[in-house]
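Hi Q.,

Before the meeting this afternoon, I wanted you to have the tetrahydrodeoxyuridine prediction in hand. No need to reply - just skim if you have a minute. The sequence and ligand are here:
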Amino acid sequence: MTDKAQIQRLIETAEAQLAYSYVPYSGFRVGAALLAKNGSVYTGCNIENAAYTPSNCAERTAFFKAVSGGVKEFSAICIVGGQDGVLTEYTPPCGVCRQVMMEFCDPEEFEIILATGAEDYRILKLKELLPMGFGPGNLRKE
Ligand code: THU
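Predicted structure with the ligand bound:
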């Protein structure tokens, strides 16, 4: 379980990423802060594209930064988002991002922190957001 100080730090870090999101098409800014088991925090923002489909979500940006640096074990991610960067509602991860989480995280343990600010957040386990997910274990031979 992530402690309160750590949660606050993740929320602040995710909020700080909103400024970097590249969203000329939707105007919907998303920021993420991914906590690795080694204590490192990887940041991410959404990055859109004129051809639309190459766009990348904030969560996957954070995961891919971590994995490309050799880090593959994670305990939590905080996600914030809103139109023009105004945080009025929780921003739950899209299905593709949930599947990327499933690749690297234990669905029973990994925590997804949805926040609109330091005082308003909700913590869910990956298994709640992706019940009966298909993951690396399903491809294990024997
Ligand atoms: N978006 C994310 O970055 N994360 C999510 O989980 C939901 C959607 C982005 C993608 C796109 O740039 C914008 O939000 C609107 O869909």
